[in-house]
Predict the 3D structure of the following.
Amino acid sequence: MNTKQPRYKLSTIFFTAVLAVFCTTQSSAQANSCAAHPESQKLDYWLGDWAIVAPGGAADASSQVSRSLDKCVVVENWKGEQNHFGENVFGYSAGDKSWKGFFADNRGHVHVFVDGHVSAGKAEFEGPSRSDKGEKELNRIRITRLSNNKVEQTWDKSTDNGATWKRLFRLEYTRRPS
């Protein structure tokens, strides 16, 4: 009796085993990716190309909001008046089940938002910073979906640890046609 198996059967068995391991690894990686978690997609209403206006102001600001890092973060690149521009990055932290954010502009302003919550059509982020005079402040940014093609962003500051808030600005985003 011949105990040797034909070569093609061994290679078929080997190929099948390798394919099974690869598919299991890929499925596991996809299950752990941000795209597989609905919570990390709750800010998707903000994705797009936007014209921005402050009520009563000129419509000369713009924003492009997109996904990055395998859909783990939402990145806003914005351009305002008088050569003012910046980047905002927001991401969902699966470890503590909250959103985090980071704001930086070309004028040396940096804000970190350590506490964020996003629900259907509404996002709110808060975080501490210091004023130009070195005083402690608390920042709060809200991004609210008004319709499929309109979003409102507000930024408030508190100098008394959130007891009272002062509105810094309110912006209206209008989606540009694709």
Notes: The helical segments are 7-32. The two ends are 71 Å apart (CA to CA).
